[in-house]
């Protein structure tokens, strides 16, 4: 089963602001698949396809993460890659160190279970849309610039999850398998 470790975005006021941001892209000549409100999250580590028999071992590692509740402030937007946008994201100005610490711990300690550490430097963000194509790149980039310094709000991170992801034609369906409270 396809799995990943993440932090859910649960605060309604933040979700509402993200949905407003997504709506602003509708007039642009582009095809963008937006992430549904219930699927918004920070990916801590993508695990890929795993055997169900290893879930308890992953959970055991999760329980050892030095984790307590911390605030995150959402207030920057951008795209990957900047030159030819494929992913539209929202970043954070507060909580970076805590998220980096969690991902570093997971990368180091899941190696024992056969998971390779990430080669790329961790860049905390929420993917809010995937760009399939864009005919009006100027308008898309202008919209990103307009929202660059907008605040989406602040939330306390109180838990992180191991989720299963089932890909369907209508989009992924996520199910929480395990959760750690901080």
Please tell me about this protein's structure.
The protein is of the alpha+beta class. It has a single domain (2-181), classed as Cyclic Phosphodiesterase, Chain: A. Helices cover 25% and strands 42% of the residues. It has four helices and nine strands; from the N terminus they run βαββαββαβαβββ. The strands form two sheets. A five-stranded antiparallel β-sheet has the order 2-6-5-4-7, with helices on both faces. A four-stranded antiparallel β-sheet has the order 3-1-8-9. A hairpin with a 2-residue loop joins strand 8 and strand 9 (171-181). It is globular. It starts with a strand and ends with a strand. The model has no long low-confidence stretch (mean pLDDT 96).
What order do the helices and strands come in, and which of them pair?
Blueprint (H helix, E strand, L loop, with lengths): L1 E7 L3 H12 L6 E5 L6 E9 L5 H9 L6 E11 L6 E8 L1 H15 L14 E10 L2 H10 L6 E5 L1 E10 L2 E11 L1
Antiparallel strand pairs: 1-3, 1-8, 2-6, 4-5, 4-7, 5-6, 8-9
């Amino acid at each position: 089963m396809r799995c990943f470790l993440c932090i859910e975005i649960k605060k309604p006021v933040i979700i509402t602001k993200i949905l407003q941001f997504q709506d602003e892209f509708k007039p642009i000549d582009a095809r963008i698949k937006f992430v549904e409100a219930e699927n918004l999250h920070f990916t801590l580590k993508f695990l890929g396809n795993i055997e169900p028999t290893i879930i308890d071992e992953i959970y055991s590692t999760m329980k050892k993460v030095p984790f307590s509740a911390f605030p995150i402030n959402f207030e920057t937007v951008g795209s990957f890659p900047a030159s030819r946008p494929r992913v539209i994201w929202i970043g954070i100005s507060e909580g970076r160190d805590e998220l980096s610490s969690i991902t570093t711990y997971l990368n180091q300690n899941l190696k024992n279970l056969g998971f390779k550490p990430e080669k790329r430097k961790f860049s905390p963000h929420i993917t809010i849309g995937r760009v399939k194509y864009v005919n009006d790149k100027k308008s898309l980039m202008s919209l990103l610039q307009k929202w660059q310094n907008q605040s989406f709000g602040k939330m306390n991170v109180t838990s992180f999850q191991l989720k299963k992801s089932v890909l369907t034609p209508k989009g992924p369906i996520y199910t929480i398998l395990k959760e750690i409270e901080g």
